[in-house]
Amino acid sequence: MSQYMLLNIEEREKILSIGVNQLEVRAITEKIRRSPCTVSHELTRNSTTGAYSPTLAQKRAEEQHKVA
């Protein structure tokens, strides 16, 4: 089983700059070289009221990583 590597803040910023519409998930994955599943989960977990915040997503990931 391969080990999951967290997205870093640069990857999260790229997701925001490319766009976060579901139609664009494949385009995002090609740019940041991550699986469509990873990007889709990232957007689902870290989009509030339809807006994606890479800074908030990074903070949540860091907090969860400390707990785990």
How would you describe what is shown here?
The structure is a single chain. The protein has 68 residues and is mainly alpha-helical. The chain has one domain (9-67). Helices cover 63% and strands 6% of the residues. The chain contains four helices and two strands, in the order αααββα. It has helices at residues 9-18, 25-32, 36-46, 54-67, and strands at residues 47-48, 51-52. The chain has a two-stranded antiparallel ribbon. A hairpin with a 2-residue loop joins strand 1 (47-48) and strand 2. Helix 1 (9-18) runs antiparallel to helix 2 and helix 1 runs antiparallel to helix 4. The chain is globular. 16% of the residues are buried. The model has no long low-confidence stretch (mean pLDDT 84).
Average the pLDDT over all residues and give the rounded result.
Answer: 84
Q: Given the C-alpha coordinates, what overall shape results?
A: globular
- Give unreliable regions as ranges: none
Q: Bin the helical content.
A: 55-70%
H and E order: HHHEEH
Rounded radius of gyration (Å)? 12 Å
Distance between the termini: 19 Å
